[in-house]
Design brief:
Structural class: alpha+beta
Number of domains: 1
CATH topology: Beta Polymerase, domain 2
Order of helices and strands: HEEHEEEHHH
Distance between the termini: 71 Å
Low-confidence stretches: none
Strand content: 15-25%
Largest sheet: 5 strands, mixed
Radius of gyration: 17 Å
Helix content: 25-40%
Strand order of the largest sheet: 1-2-5-4-3
Shape: globular
Number of helices: 5
Mean pLDDT: 90
Length: 137
């Protein structure tokens, strides 16, 4: 009787910094702007990196979150997503990376950029770093 060979499929893995940068790139693909990636590993135990993103509308924020979720699916599932139905502030938890997707006004109000300002920013590609909101209309 022949022995049946089984294939073992290894899931590709990303380092936390690679995952954070990929989140930024996937958000940029959906026209996100004011993208910031902070290394919070030395100032907090909740995650290694925090990605802060702005979008112009509920629908855009939902599209950004969905693009990140599907783009990272091959590397593992997201642990939790909060706020996706509303779309004003979406939080995605990958364990080592937290992703916050905001409307402008909500981002300014909660000021996570200021709260986590002591954490160093990761260097982003120039086109992502330069992405800014064009106008309110």
């Amino acid at each position: 009787m022949p022995v049946k060979k089984t294939k073992t499929v290894e899931k590709k893995t990303l380092t936390p910094s690679e995952r954070a940068l990929m989140c930024a790139e996937l958000a940029y693909d959906k026209k996100a702007y004011d993208i910031c990636v902070r290394d919070i590993s030395r100032v907090s135990s909740i995650a290694d990196y925090m990605v802060i993103i702005s979008g112009s509308s509920d629908k855009q924020n939902q599209a950004i979150a969905e693009n990140i979720r599907t783009g990272l699916k091959k590397y593992g599932k997201v642990n939790d997503i909060e706020g996706a139905n509303d779309g004003k502030w979406i939080v995605m938890d990958y364990g080592d990376v937290l992703v916050h997707i905001f409307h402008d006004q909500i981002r300014k109000y909660y000021d996570l950029d200021g709260l986590w300002g002591m954490a160093p920013e990761l260097e982003l590609p120039p086109e992502i770093k330069a992405a800014r909101k064009e106008s309110d209309f």
